[in-house]
Design brief:
about 25% strand, single chain, 5-stranded mixed sheet, Nucleotidyltransferase, domain 5, alpha/beta
């Protein structure tokens, strides 16, 4: 079963895709946000093209676990996406994934403009890999 993850921001959406076994996440692309309808169509088209069964959406919770303004925007995007998507939507706690992605990219030597879109995609990879690892640990292996 193939899964996709989204790191939804105000300007960009980072997207990651799992392999067919649901074991390994890799970056797919970074979409520049255009508008709600176009963004939903673009994500739904990618999910259909890659045969995605579930879309994991990073939910940016506050450190105390509460939902702030960014999380509310993400939930609104999920509601819009739900209508145009033929895959299950899974909200996933993404606290600090963008911070970790920036640190990893900095350590890898990625600089300046190249890092901007790459951070969103790398954050999506971290979100998806943590979800896949959790799912594997919970059921003793990847779901089929």
């Amino acid at each position: 079963m193939r899964s996709m993850a989204l790191d939804v921001g105000d300007r960009r959406i980072g997207i990651a895709l799992s392999d067919e076994t649901g074991t390994l996440a890799s970056g797919l692309e970074t979409l520049d946000r255009v508008g709600p309808r176009q963004d939903v169509r673009a994500v739904a088209a990618l999910a259909a093209t890659h045969g995605v069964a579930e879309v994991v959406v990073g939910l940016p919770r506050n450190m105390d676990g509460s939902l702030g303004p960014r999380a509310q925007k993400t939930l609104a995007f999920m509601d819009a996406l739900r209508a145009g998507l033929r895959a299950e939507l899974v909200p996933w706690d993404e606290r600090l994934t963008s911070v970790m992605a920036r640190r990893l990219l900095r350590e890898a030597g990625t600089r300046g403009r190249r890092r901007k879109g790459t951070v969103d995609r790398a954050a999506a990879v971290l979100i998806l890999q943590s979800y896949l690892d959790h799912r594997k640990a919970a059921v003793g292996g990847p779901a089929d």
